[in-house]
């Protein structure tokens, strides 16, 4: 029997990020394959949150059952306390925070809450791979604004003209996957101004908020007039090295939050209760934790960037997040997909072809993305394996 997939789903590519990771593993096995493709840590999370997760499981009782759909009070209160401190204004755990299954569900819930079929959503290109399928799932159309290498700035006029009568939302990801760009205050001020003038909802994915090596992390929600219209998404995956726990959250004004909670209820009901309790312990970690976290990532970044440049790639140091878009024109005439394939076959090194972050694939043909949430030994092993390709 042949089944017909819906037109929406039929048009989706498989996740290239996961495919590259799995192909490399299949060819070389876990002992040899070096995974610079899928951005997840190969080291342990902070022990405090693992202990807290174990304690929550041991305590049992209601922790084995649904938490309140939009998040266990313990976690929402911890998020509120943390965010109020960072934003220097009260964030209300009762009416402004929703806990979801990772930032990925958060993005979909935010779009379902704000966007109608036929609307347009502005997306900066290159983009993290789920933003476009998410936009299509809600029946809207993405409208792209290019970020241009090497410094990944956008043209203010191109942004202005991307706002049309149909624009409902704009997705801003800072620090940015895949480029490492950290949106400047001036860039965010322009986005804020356009959103206010045109009545557009900004949805900001700030999952890499603690990974800013250069400059400052500015939340759009902290700019004047923006708290009452912005949906801010973050989560535990990157900050506490627990990408498999699937704990994310949204912070939005009460009216938007009420919508988000309904969508979330119908999408997933809720996320793992004991792990919510554990993430609350993470949010109570002292500043020293974040300082160490950042300095360890800086070391990984510097090792990878210097190593790639020494091997003939063209890479500038990312200001944030844990990815680099590496130019390989000096190394090969191949396109990005063939080159990434060659890296897997000859070096056992998985990367992501640049074009998979673009709606206009030709723009990514001479880049591959490396992610670096990896132990220094892993990065060194990967660089050694790449030594032969020049
Ligand atoms: N955010 C991670 C990345 O960009 C993981 C993505 C995924 O698993 N599809 O690599």
TrEMBL record:
CDD domains: AAT_like (cd00609). It is an enzyme of class 2 (transferase). Residues 34-386 form the Aminotransferase class I/classII large domain. Belongs to the class-I pyridoxal-phosphate-dependent aminotransferase family. This is Aminotransferase. Its EC number is 2.6.1.-. It comes from the Bacteria. Keywords: Aminotransferase, Pyridoxal phosphate, Transferase. Signal peptide: none annotated. Gene3D superfamilies: Aspartate Aminotransferase, domain 1 (3.90.1150.10), Type I PLP-dependent aspartate aminotransferase-like (Major domain) (3.40.640.10). GO terms for molecular function: kynurenine-oxoglutarate transaminase activity; pyridoxal phosphate binding. Its cofactor is pyridoxal 5'-phosphate. It comes from Candidatus Dormiibacter inghamiae. One of its GO terms (cellular component) is cytoplasm.
């Amino acid at each position: 029997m042949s089944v017909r997939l819906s037109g929406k789903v039929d048009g989706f590519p498989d996740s290239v990020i996961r495919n590259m990771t799995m192909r490399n593993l299949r060819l070389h096995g876990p002992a040899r394959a070096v995974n610079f493709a899928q951005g997840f840590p190969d080291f342990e999370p902070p022990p405090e949150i693992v202990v807290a997760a174990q304690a929550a499981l041991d305590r049992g009782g209601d922790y084995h059952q649904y938490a309140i759909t939009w998040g266990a009070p313990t976690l929402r209160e911890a998020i509120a306390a943390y965010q109020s401190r960072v934003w220097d204004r009260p964030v209300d755990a009762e009416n402004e925070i929703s806990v979801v299954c990772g930032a990925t569900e958060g993005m979909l819930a935010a779009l379902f809450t704000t966007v109608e079929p036929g609307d347009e959503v502005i997306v900066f290109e290159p983009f993290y791979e789920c933003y476009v399928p998410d936009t299509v799932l809600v029946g809207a159309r993405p409208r792209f604004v290019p970020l241009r290498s090497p410094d990944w700035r956008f043209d203010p006029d191109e942004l202005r003209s991307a706002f049309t009568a149909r624009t409902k939302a704009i997705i801003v990801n800072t620090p940015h996957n895949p480029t490492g760009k950290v949106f400047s205050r001036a860039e965010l001020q322009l986005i804020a101004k356009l959103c206010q003038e045109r009545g557009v909802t900004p949805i900001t994915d700030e999952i890499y908020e603690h990974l800013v090596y250069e400059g400052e992390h500015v939340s759009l929600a902290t700019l004047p007039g923006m708290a009452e219209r912005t949906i801010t998404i973050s989560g535990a995956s990157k900050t506490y090295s627990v990408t498999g726990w699937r704990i994310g959250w949204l912070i939005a004004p009460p009216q938007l939050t009420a919508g988000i909670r309904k969508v979330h209820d119908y999408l997933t009901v809720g996320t793992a209760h004991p792990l919510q309790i554990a993430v609350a312990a993470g949010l109570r970690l002292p500043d020293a934790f974040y300082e160490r976290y950042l300095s360890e990532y800086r070391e990984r970044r510097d090792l990878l960037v210097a190593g790639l440049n020494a091997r003939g790639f063209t890479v500038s140091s990312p200001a944030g997040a844990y990815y680099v878009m590496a130019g390989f024109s000096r190394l090969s005439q191949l396109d990005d997909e063939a080159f990434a394939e060659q890296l897997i076959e000859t070096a056992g090194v998985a990367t992501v072809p640049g074009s998979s972050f673009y709606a206009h694939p030709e723009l990514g043909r001479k880049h591959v993305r490396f992610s670096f949430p990896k132990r220094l030994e892993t990065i060194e092993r990967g660089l050694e394996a790449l030594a032969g390709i020049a």
